[in-house]
Write a structure and sequence with these properties.
3 helices, 7% helix, single chain, 7-stranded antiparallel beta sheet
């Protein structure tokens, strides 16, 4: 019996003496006392230097709050944000045995954007061919639209400092209306940034003006796989309501995702229709006010180059019935600007 008690005591002593031994002879102690110190650059570059420290930590994983991650063995990283905003940064410290501890901090970023592409529409005549091409044809390519798109100056021209897209009631190549659709495809496209378009929208029941974008892989991937970003759509039957919408695989046509909002005087005054686009989100603005925010992710098509489109359709699945008394309407664009 004494021998048995001695053995049991010895076994108990060995177990207790190991404590948190991981089997390698080292004590399995997780990290503790995690602190994060951010230093935001004062030059509006978006650069932030982070220093994370923790006892018993051998690596640090940063979540920068915008869908981007980075791992450091020292805890020190420098990261460049591409858009202004307040971000919640989460740091996970890890020990040699895989135990972790997390902490978070907020950083407020101001990024000075640079103008990378624009058209101010100051040269009278046809739109700049170095910046714009045209879709020519009838039907709207799937939307049952009633117009025939042309590149005639009857339907599109620059005068008095604005672009004018003109829809007309006229018989033309089998259609009863004409209009124009401009696009920067093959001339300019971009990934992420800020878009701002100043426009005065047409009146007239049946009109359907739009400021929108398609993915550069439209020709190969097709729609809606390429993704579609509708910065602004409006229909003349509800002329003060603005729609901002996203189309992509599984969410296209009637199942697209977006929002609508009312503003005043869309047909009598110029308003700014904008988009702030990052890897984390797409924010839609009217007159610099964010009206709708969509969460972006790496699984969506909104992380590639897109090109710009300006057009005015007639009727169709969105525009609806055209007023029989309709003769013509004009969509005026003062400028298109893209910042990064």
């Amino acid at each position: 019996m004494r021998w048995l008690i001695t053995c049991l005591l010895s076994f108990w002593f060995l177990c207790c003496s190991k404590g948190g031994d991981s089997g390698t002879g080292t004590t399995d102690v997780g990290p503790s006392n995690l602190t994060i110190t951010p230093t935001v650059s004062t030059d509006n570059s978006g650069n932030v230097s982070f220093i994370a420290t923790a006892t018993n930590a051998v690596s640090y994983e940063y979540d920068f709050g915008n869908g981007q991650y980075q791992t450091s063995t020292t805890g020190s990283v420098t990261y460049k944000y591409t858009a202004s905003g307040t971000y919640t940064v989460i740091v996970k410290a890890k020990s040699t045995t895989g135990k972790t501890i997390s902490a978070s901090t907020n950083v407020t970023i101001t990024v000075a954007l640079s103008l990378v592409w624009s058209d101010e529409f100051n040269s009278p005549g046809a739109p700049d061919p170095a910046k714009w091409g045209y879709d020519i044809g009838a039907g709207g390519w799937g939307n049952s639209e009633l117009q025939y798109y042309t590149n005639r100056t009857d339907n599109v021209l620059v005068s008095n400092g604005t672009l004018k897209i003109i829809a007309k009631k006229e018989a033309y190549s089998g259609s009863n209306y004409t209009s124009a659709r401009l696009l920067s495809k093959g001339k300019f496209s971009f990934q992420y940034g800020k878009v701002e378009v100043s426009a005065k929208l047409p009146g007239g029941v049946g009109t359907w003006p739009a400021i929108w974008m398609l993915g550069d892989n439209f020709s190969t991937a097709g729609w809606p796989t390429c993704g579609e970003i509708d910065i602004m759509e409006q229909k003349g039957s509800d002329m003060n309501r603005i729609y901002s919408t996203l189309h992509y695989l599984g969410h296209s046509g009637g199942s697209a995702i977006g929002s609508s909002f009312l503003i005043n005087n869309v047909t009598t005054a110029f308003h700014k229709y904008g988009l702030i686009w990052t890897s984390a989100s797409l924010q839609f603005l009217v007159d610099d006010v964010v009206c709708y925010t969509f969460t972006n992710s790496s699984s969506l098509p909104f992380n590639q180059n897109f090109f710009m489109i300006l057009n005015m359709a007639m009727g169709g699945t969105f525009g609806g019935n055209v007023d029989p008394a309709f003769n013509s309407a004009v969509m005026e664009v003062d400028y298109v600007r893209v910042y990064q």
